[in-house]
Design brief:
homodimer; 342 residues; alpha/beta; Isopropylmalate Dehydrogenase; 11-stranded mixed sheet; 13 helices; 11 strands; 15% strand; disordered C terminus
Chain lengths: 342, 342
């Protein structure tokens, strides 16, 4: 059976105009698409596209969560918002996963409160997937949790390893703990204690890694508290944009440079593609009873398509069952403190 | 009187061969230089340089802290190391400041234990100065402290503001608190409480800033815990290097691109200069009785020179007196918890 993915048609900076074509493309690739949002606008976007024979349903939702709505408010007061209706479809068994490029705080809150946690998960976490010089790296958590305890950090790593293995297709992903020195014993209190949990686990734990190791591609999963991860993710986006802007400015500063830039255009395009987040999917929210992918607000059609693909792969490869297995195997490492920490 | 700066001649990846010429150049600019380390090697580097009439002393030190020495060991077992001898010159009043590109953990430890804190300072902190699209930004703390309390974070901001104003020459530097959302109330427990201290202070506090704001140049001082700041600093270095490598690889992938790159060379050089850390000084360790500048291990001659310049400016502009004044003005905000937190 094809994976059924509910897509928040209203989400993101470009809304239905970008989301609907991306969803149609995913349907062409064999995904059962459920578009959720303003029926008239969705129909208008579907009209010019060839959708004959494709598995596309439309489920109406009368409200939209705005980018500046507070997650809690969105949850309570906009019960008929596209993101909440889409998430309820997963809860009610009418879809397997949900993708939204809307207000990411609201998407996370909907996932947490509507779907609930997989048994044994202490804290769901947001996995950021970032380009590197080699294969992408999974940074977890990138903002769903702050002040994480050691057992939380350990489970973040466990969940992201399942993602890396069963969704990104890495054979035996390596897991590193983000710290401020490679030696054991470096870091803050939570990281030092998490180190021991990782070392006792069955994960391929490579020890502490530092900020400079994230983008080399030499580690597959990097674990950190959501405060640190969110700063790291946004800093990376900001720095990449700033570097691109500075480069552009410098290369347009003389006629010779401009001519040179023109000749190098193909190289630049490839560079931009490597750096560009659009090629990578969004951030999966891991640990919930259902697949939730938080797409970047700026997502273009390709980015949305990649998010839907990732959601579909998660469902096809039964990542949730693998996660449950992993949690069971490692229950001894987190159970002791699970009750007090949950 | 000229500022007297003790320079660890043995420090850094390139040692005396790079440090000595940088120090001589600083002497030409009117700094009284005290070179500390292996006398024979220092003399050999000085010999071919024109040093007539310059204020350059050499103080011998028989030991060298290696890059893989642990800071505590270096402190206890290498009491005659160049970095420790240089720091003691400041302690004993024979120099006003010290610059080292050696083992940064050992440099920080020497500063902390040999010099001691300025009265009222809870925790000395390391200020990273990073290039942006506009003026450089001061990120504090970049690794001297982990698990910082709210009053520590507040003092980090206070110390960096003095640096930005009296050493970097900004008129009324803005101070932002690094968090994971701009609204008040966002962040972890320590950040939320620090927010209130900043708001009640006389600093030009602009509220929470996010990772993406660091490199825009729109905020002058960004305050965070040393764990977060260290990750941010190393991540930035790593990402900038990775982007440069990817760009280089792409631009060398065809003859047309290579020709184009050749024509754009001046633009690239300017880009590299903006991105390159060498143009900026090292990281000042703030809050100590004496000026300590931690230079990057990879520092080239220009980077070392800039560090010495920064140390000299700190002394000339009496930054320590301004810091003491700032601490006194804001004592009410940190005193209540100062004893328990110190």
């Amino acid at each position: 059976m094809a994976p059924r993915i509910a897509v928040d048609a209203m989400g993101g900076d470009y809304g239905p105009h970008v989301v609907v074509p991306a969803a149609v493309e995913a349907a062409r690739e064999g995904v059962h698409i459920v578009l959720v949002g303003d029926e008239a606008r969705i129909s208008a976007e579907l009209a010019p596209l060839k959708t004959d024979g494709l598995d596309i349903d439309v489920v109406p939702a009368t409200q939209v969560v705005e980018m500046d709505d507070k997650p809690g408010d969105a949850l309570r007061r906009k019960r008929d918002s596209s993101i909440q209706v889409a998430t309820r479809l997963v809860k009610d068994g009418q879809a397997d996963g949900v993708v939204s490029a809307g207000n990411s705080g609201a998407t996370v809150a909907c996932g947490m409160f509507v779907l609930g946690r997989i048994k044994g998960v202490l804290r769901p976490a947001l996995a950021g997937i970032m380009p590197t010089e080699k294969t992408p790296v999974v940074l977890i958590d990138v903002g769903a949790n702050v002040d994480s305890k050691p057992q939380h950090l350990f489970q973040f790593g466990l969940m992201a390893e399942v993602l890396a293995r069963h969704v990104l297709g890495l054979e035996k992903p390596s897991v590193g703990l983000l710290s401020i020195g490679e030696e054991e014993g470096k870091g803050n209190a939570a990281v030092r204690d998490a180190f021991d949990l990782f070392r006792e686990s069955e994960l391929r734990f490579i020890g502490n890694v530092e900020g400079r190791d994230i983008f080399t591609g030499d580690v597959d999963v990097v674990v950190c508290d959501g405060f640190v991860g969110n700063v790291a993710l946004k800093l990376s986006e900001g720095l990449a944009s700033s570097m691109s802007r500075i480069l552009k400015r410098e290369l347009h500063s003389s006629w010779l440079s401009r001519l040179g830039t023109l000749l190098s255009m193909r190289g630049f395009k490839r560079f931009k593609r490597v750096v560009d987040y659009a090629e990578y999917g969004g951030a999966p929210l891991l640990g919930l009873k259902g697949t939730v992918i938080v797409a970047h607000g700026k997502s273009n059609e390709l980015a949305i398509l990649n998010c839907i693909r990732m959601a579909a792969t998660t469902v096809r490869n039964k990542a949730h069952e693998h996660l449950s297995d992993g949690l069971a195997v490692h229950a001894g490492l987190t159970n002791g403190s699970a009750k007090s920490a949950a």
